[in-house]
Structure formats: C-alpha cells, structure tokens
Design a protein that fits this description.
- Two copies of one chain form a homodimer.
- Chain A is of the alpha/beta class.
- Chain A has three domains: about 150 residues, Nitrogenase molybdenum iron protein domain (Rossmann fold), CATH 3.40.50; about 210 residues, Nitrogenase molybdenum iron protein domain (Rossmann fold), CATH 3.40.50; about 40 residues.
- Chain A is about 45% helix and about 15% strand.
- In chain A, the strands form three sheets. Chain A has a six-stranded parallel β-sheet.
- The longest helix of chain A has 19 residues.
- Chain A starts with a strand and ends with a helix.
- Strand 13 of chain A pairs parallel with strand 14 of chain B, so a sheet runs across the interface.
- Chains A, B: Pathway: Amino-acid biosynthesis; L-histidine biosynthesis; L-histidine from 5-phospho-alpha-D-ribose 1-diphosphate: step 9/9.
C-alpha cells in the first residue's frame, strides 16, 4: 500500500486512478455469445453450459427435489442468519415506498404521480468462487416488494449441474420460482432476447465478472435497462486517531479480498496512523484464505495523508467511493460533508460487511466513480414513476390561455390548437 | 393513417413498429466531433459554430446586455404565461421531495437514506426550428430544486450569434446563469469532457436531434450519466364514442407536428369512430403551418380497432407510449390498467399539450418503448439517494453473528473478520 503525502489537487485524478479494463478484447468474446443466444435460444444455452460450466444439463431448471433438498442440506444456523438479514432488508426497503402523490396545482388541474412496478425483471447471481446468496436477498426482496410480475433469476450451474443450495434456498424463501441454470454473458443474452425457457425482461440487475458487465452494457442497445454501470468493488476508510487501527485494517482487507482489481483507500491525517494500519494489515493478511487476491488488490491501493479535514472531504468526494467508512472524532461534520458515495458506514462499530449482508441497506452500489451520478439499487430501481393529469372544463379555462401562448411562441400551432378547439367548444356550450 | 382491424397479438410487434434509425452513419459524424472537442476545447467550439451555426462568435457566453434585452424583447403575455407554468411545475416537482428516511431496523442498528443533489448537471436546449423555452423550465426547475451546485445550459446560437430571447429569459427567471452558446453533438462533447468555458458535468439532460442523441449515448462511455435513451416523440390516444373526434384529431396532430419521425396511434373500438377522427385530421391538417411534417408523421401512424377493452389495454401496455390520452367512458378502469406509459392524460379536457407546457408534470418522458423500464424526468433525476448505517456496540452484538455466518458461507473470511475482531474487542472490554 503506497503512502501519498498530501497530494496536490491537480494530481488526484492520476494518483487515485482506478484500474483500466480492456473492453475491446472482452467485447470480442461477448458479442458472438449474444448473437448465438439470440439466434439459437435454449440450444445455445445448453451448448454454453458444456463449454463454460463443463456440464451437460438435462434441463435448464432445477427440479422440485433439487429445491427441496437445498433447504435440507443447509446448516440451520445459516438459514436463520439469512432470515434475519431478510427481515432487515425487507423492513428498510419497504420503508422506501413512495406514496402516491396527488396535487391540484390549480383549480381543476390535478396532477398525480404513482410508482408502478417494472413488469419483467432479471436477476443475475454469479456462481464462481463464492455463492452470492446475499445478492439474491438484495435484488429479490425489492423486486418482490415492488410487485414485479415476472422475476427471473439466472445463475450458473456447478460441474454437477446444480445451483448452490444457499442460492436456491434464499430464492425460494423470498418467493422467486423462476430459476434458470445459466451463467455469464449467455445469461444476460437470454434475458435480453428471450429463449424458449428464459423470458425476455425489461431490466437486468446483478453483479458479475467483466464478461457479464460487458454483456449488460451491450444489452442496453436492445431496449433492456440495467441497474447501473459496473466496476470492481472498492472501499475508502476515513479515519483519525480516534479509530482502531485493527478495525480499519480488517475493513480494508474485507474489500481487498473481493478481487485482484478491487481498490481500497485509507485517508488519514498522520503517517503514524497510516503505518499502524499497514502493520495490522500485514498481520491479519496472513490468516486470510484469500490472501493472494487481497495482496494483489493492495498493490492498487493507497494510504493518503491529508493534513486538512476539509480538503480530505474534498478528496473523498472527488474519488466518490462505493463504500465509505467514517471513523473520525468529528463524525457528524464529516458525514454531512459527503456528497459522492454509494453507502456510508459511520463509527468504529459499523464494518462495511454489515451493509454487505444484513443491516438493511442494499449492497448493490455504484462503483468506479459512478457514485457521482448514480444511486445504489433500492425499491426505486424496480418501479417506474408514471405521471397523470386530469383537467376539468373549468381547469382548462384556467390553464388553457397559458398553454396557447407558450405553444404559439414555440411555433407549435398544433399544440395550441388542441387547447383552442376545446375552449371554443366550452364557450359555445356556455352560450 | 392506416387502419388495423383487431390485429393478432403475435403481429403487434411488427404492426406497431417504430421508425428505425441509421445509428452507424450518425456515429460516423458524431465521433470525430467528440474527439475534436476533447482535444481542442473552446477552439473546437468556435470552429463548429462557424461550420454548423454559420456564425463567428466573439464569446461563447451571452453578454449582460443580451440577457437584459431578452426580457425587454419579450411579449409581456408570454412572460406571464411562462411564470404561470413555472409556478405549476415548481409546485408539482417540489412535492416530489423524498424526506430523509431513518429506521432503527434492530436495536442499535440505524439505517438512513438521504437525497443528495448530483453536483454538476448539463441541460441541453435545442435551437433549430422551435425555441424550446418550455424545456428550460422542465429541466431547470428540478435542477434548481434539487440543489445541484453547477447547472450549465447549452443551446445553439442563431445566425446572428444570439440565443432566442425566450430561452434566455426563462433561464434567468429560474436562476440559471451559466449559459453557453453551443449546440449539437459539440455541446454534449463539451459537457462530457469539459473545455476552458464549459465545465465537465456528472449528468446530461435534454432532447435533441439524432446527432445529439448519439452523442449522449457515446458520452455514457466516459462516465457521464444521461437522463434517458431518446427517440422521437409519440402519443397514443385511447378513445371510445364518449370522446370528441375533433379533440382526438387535434391531439394526434399536436404530436404529429413534432417531427417527420413522430408516431401517433389511435386505439378505438369501432371503424366508424376511427374514420370520423381521420376525417377531422384531414380538415384540421390544412390549417397547420407544420402540415408537411405532420403529414409525413401520419404516414408512420396507425388507427387500431380493438373489440375487447381488456385486450386494448394489453396492446397499449405492449406499445408503452410516451404520452397516453384516455378518453373513454370507463375511464378509471382504463387508467388503473396502465402499467407502461410515460405520462397519462385523462378525460376529454386534458390535451397532451397541457403536460408539454404547464400542468406541472414533466414533459421529458421515455419514448420508443422505454416507458417499460424508465421513468420520465423528475426531481429524482437530479439526486442520488445515499444510504448510511450506524451500529452501536450493542447493535453489533445483535447483528454480528448473522454477518459472520453469512460471510463464512460465501467464503469471504475477510468480511467475517471485520465483525469478529470488533466482537472480540467488545467481549474483552466487558471482562
């Protein structure tokens, strides 16, 4: 972990640069996959399962028995933990419901706004090194709460052709029944174009490797929406001497273990504290099963010394971290100064992993600087807000002349006429 | 306007297809523009003003005098109309504010969600055939209400090097002071990369021709967000015998006059009513200054006869119109069955132009079928919703074991350790 000592503002961009990806090469692999799924449907999915998951599937769906035995196979303590997390996530996402807005802006002119579920959504749950059942909770719970009519969950099968029991159990627990054994770019393609088994959806959610990310980006060209642009996970910890160096080290490592391209940043005042944290990282690292991954991620990472608290906050907002941990004496002041971050973790006893699993907030958050212009996934991500207006004859008399003058001055006579013809009709009636 | 008689469901996609665009050819023109602005900054903008706007600019900014004389040049009746519209739009968008959400999901585990303004936004206001000062209201008002720190408005100069006085007046009225004389793809490029005069922004809003649309799409590759994917404007009118054929004709024409690629659809039960509307269209068309445009748009348009009201609603949701006018006897039933639409206009006295200008709803809406998965512009479009969590030592004792078990089962020991190390510390303290 390199230490930067009060870097000049014009060097921030370079010094805090995130890893760059070779999108061209990845697209060269992803585009033919999309094309094949579009053309050959399920047949292509079975073929890709052989090629990438090394398994010959009988069916793209898990059997009843597979789902039932998933629950039986799981440690009761894990099931209970998943239920606790579910309750918290459900509670905090239910609280995000936007009540219907009705407002009579002028006598006889009523405007309304209502949340309406996106009808068909697709959730992608990676398999790979870790069975991300927590992501099933984070995407599935708001989808169910929003009232999406069709919820499809795609996840790759293992070499035995099965989906991890914790993923099946969690999906079943929250009421998602359409589970498809397909992973990677081919899963995104299936949900984009539809196949015999996989419905075409309106919006695709979920994390994934660079192939999944590239496929989601390409999917947007075919009318599908996606949750957000993706990049590797990241955390920035802002800590002063009131923080516990061991806790800070553990938090930085919890992010570094995600992947070799993860980035972790420490912002602090003194070199002394930075060195203390680095020492604790070295100690803790040795006990981590994923230490090789974490070591590589730490090579991309920085400890930034900032003398001035205001400038420190400026740098943090410039970086716009996905996860921001704030462990400083003047906590409120720092928290209130945040304007670019995905999710904020406050104080010495709020590890980032709390939000990853169970505090109730969503863990699908904008990375790679997108916290400047994107929100994390929330109940909002699964609805559209449709507006309505209803104008009475009285109301049209009130607002009509305003519309007529504006339309005329935008040289849109047809727009004006839609009002004029109605006002004339009303005037005739009055006579 | 072609009449379709109860088209079979599997033909809807083909029969209601929207116009297709040659994006490749447009991108060939747009990409070098982006590259040149990125490389040469303001110098490129001055050059493009010569090339595309046919004017040699002294400055990219309107002078104080230009802004002052804009207000003087304007008809007082127009100024008053703009003020009425402003009041309604402001009122309905202010009502969209999301209060801060704070919830103690478990004892000692507090989650929070807060709306925070996107810091820098760019608004694009087309010049061209019509001076769209109404779009200044629709984008500027929520940007100001959200509290965006920097609001840049770009609009092309006319041949005298001026911006239309109604655009200047409206921008000034709502408090937007950063106005830049630049249009087309070069304006989008300037806001994406930043130049000496134009700040780089986080999110770009606004309508435009195919070059602007293509430039916005490309801009997203450089970390900028955009309001939504764009397409030509469209309206679908759902009417029965209780509707007034002249009103329906006027509404269809008000949309058809937008552009040759606009699409208007009538859905109704009987051929008799459809023919009545078509007759009224032919009559009204003759008096429209933009009748040549409207005629071409009508060639893309359809009257669809649907015997069955439920299937009619299914077809409407399938089409997912930007604007949906509902003028039927069983109005509530129809309105409640809508799940894919940008904005809905209810009853015989609610012309679509009301929403375009002054009812209070936003006129920046998802077209081209994107009403399936996108909302129109609203106050939400100018904020991010950041989540926060704060856990007390007591709270971590409550939720910690849940996190530990889940992290362990996702094979993320580092995530688990961030909790374990804190719980151990707390247990030691208690002894």
């Amino acid at each position: 972990m390199k230490i930067l000592d009060n870097p000049a503002k014009d060097s921030w961009k370079k010094q805090l640069a995130r890893p760059v990806f070779k999108t061209k090469e990845i697209n060269k692999i992803v585009k033919p996959i999309l094309r094949k799924v579009k053309r050959n449907g399920d047949k292509a999915l079975f073929k890709f399962a052989m090629e990438y998951d090394h398994v010959e599937l009988d069916s793209l769906f898990p059997s009843e028995i597979e789902i039932q035995s998933a629950s039986e196979a799981l440690d009761p303590a894990l099931k209970e933990a998943i239920q606790v997390a579910k309750a918290n996530i459900e509670r905090f996402h239910k609280a995000q419901e936007t009540p219907e807005l009705v407002d009579e802006v002028m006598p006889g002119v009523v405007c309304k706004r209502k949340s309406v579920a996106i009808q068909k959504v697709g959730l992608y749950i990676p398999g790979g090194t870790a069975p991300l059942f927590s992501t099933v909770l984070m995407l599935g719970i708001p989808a169910v709460l929003a009232g999406c009519k069709e919820i499809v969950l795609c996840s790759p099968p293992n070499k035995e052709g099965k989906i991890h029991p914790a993923i099946l159990y969690t999906a079943n627990l929250i009421g998602i029944s359409k589970i498809v054994k397909v992973g990677g770019a081919q899963a995104i393609a299936a949900m984009t174009f539809g196949t015999e088994s996989v419905p075409k959806v309106d919006k695709i959610f979920g994390p994934g490797n660079q192939f999944v990310t590239a496929a989601k980006q390409t999917a947007t060209k075919y009318g599908v929406a996606i949750d957000m642009p993706a990049g590797p996970s990241e955390v920035l910890v802002y800590a002063d001497a009131s923080a516990n160096a061991s806790f800070v080290a553990a938090d930085l490592l919890s992010q570094a273990e995600h992947g070799v391209d993860s980035q972790v940043i420490l912002v602090t005042e003194t070199e002394k504290f930075a060195k203390k944290v680095i020492k604790k990282i070295d100690e803790q690292l040795e006990n981590l099963p994923r230490k090789d991954i974490a070591k590589k991620a730490l090579a991309n990472s920085r400890a930034v010394l900032m003398d001035n608290a205001e400038e420190a906050m400026e740098l943090i907002n410039f970086y716009a971290p996905e996860h921001l941990i704030i462990s400083v004496e003047e906590e409120d002041k720092a928290v209130n100064a945040v304007y670019n971050a995905g999710s904020v973790f406050i104080g010495n006893f709020t590890p980032e992993s709390a939000g990853d699993y169970a505090s109730g907030t969503n863990h699908t958050l904008p990375t790679y600087g997108y916290a400047r212009n994107y929100s994390g996934v929330s109940l909002d991500s699964f609805v559209k807000k449709i507006t309505y207006q209803k104008i009475t004859p009285e109301g049209l008399k009130n607002i009509g002349p305003t519309i007529e003058i504006m339309a005329e001055n935008e040289l849109l006579e047809g727009h004006k006429n839609a009002v004029t013809i109605r006002l004339k009709h009303l005037n005739k009636q009055n006579k």
